[in-house]
Amino acid sequence: MGLIIGRCALLFISIVFYIFCGAFCISHYQSIKSERNRSSEEELKSVERAQHQLDLPVVLKEGEDLSSIVDETVAKARKNETADVSFYHAILASFSVIIVSELGDKTWFIAAIMAMRHSRLTVFFGAMTALTLMTALSAGLGWATQVIPRSLTFYISTALFALFGLKMLHEGYHMSPNDGQDEYEEAHAEVHKKQLLRDTERVSEMESGSTPRNENSTYAIVRFVSTLFLEAFTLTFLAEWGDRSQLTTIILAARENVYGVVLGGIAGHALCTGIAVIGGKLVATQISVRTVTLIGGVVFIMFALSAFFIRPE
């Protein structure tokens, strides 16, 4: 058992490591492109000076100046380059924090437990619909804060990342290796309660005779799938409201490219939910919540430290 836990932890650490390697490569690529852009700007200005010295004819509209055209072209290129890099950085950041926030969380256990008893595909789509909606709403809330000065939201979000990271490290340090059972039991109780309600309603319908004996089997299957989908959606949405991953999505959307945050968040939720519904029972018994919490604390602090290298636009 200890060997399996160790391998899972090593695999998770490797995934996080590769994510940050990718972020570093993109940042390095950004610096190289910026250097090339500066060289191109100098070449354009050299051409401008040569044209003025040789009095070469230049076709310009009335009131236009060649230097202003060059400056405008360079500014547009820089703006597009910065937008592209910030988009990819937002995807990586959102994907990383969702992974370390959701694995072993209550919403994760809800999907895992429901998939043990019902259709995995239906549970997956029900949970993902709720998580996608929650991600979009959270990103919208974060984007709305952009009316506040950019530098202020950037440094406030940096401080919150550092605070969350330290809190997770503190929780992980004082957590026993067997912790996480409470999350599992709470999620199991919620799913069991919902199942009892559904069974009670079904029995009431049968006793009252409201359900015809010759009910079409196809309709019964569709009805069951619809009910299961709504259960997965409702339980996941309510459990996710006010959760750490929702707060981090709001914070990220306030400082990063909002479209990248949404895309990365959905990808992270899809990966976590997919793991839950496919191997929920096995992973739930082998996962070390303490290890995930400690790694999550390190990831949050690393994003806080990135403020020293990435300045607000």
Describe this structure in words.
InterPro entries: GDT1-like. Belongs to the GDT1 family. It is a multi-pass membrane protein. Keywords: Membrane, Transmembrane, Transmembrane helix. This protein has 313 residues and is mainly α. It has a domain at 91-209 and 216-308. 83% of the residues lie in helices and 0% in strands. It is built from 10 helices and no strands. The chain has helices spanning 2-54, 66-102, 106-117, 120-144, 150-173, 181-208, 217-240, 244-255, 258-286, 289-305. The longest helix has 53 residues, at 2-54. Mean pLDDT is 69; it is low at 1-14.
Overall 3D shape:
globular
| Major sheet description | none
Radius of gyration computed on alpha carbons: 26 Å
Summarize the helix and strand pattern as letters.
HHHHHHHHHH
Percent range for helical residues? over 70%
Tally of DSSP β-strands: 0
Percent of residues in β-strands: under 5%
Work out the helix count: 10
* Category by helix and strand content: mainly alpha
Q: Round the mean pLDDT to the nearest integer and report it.
A: 69
Poorly predicted regions:
1-14
Please give the alpha-carbon distance between the first and last residues.
49 Å
Family: Belongs to the GDT1 family.
Pfam families: GDT1 (PF01169)
GO molecular function: calcium ion transmembrane transporter activity; manganese ion transmembrane transporter activity
Subcellular location: Membrane
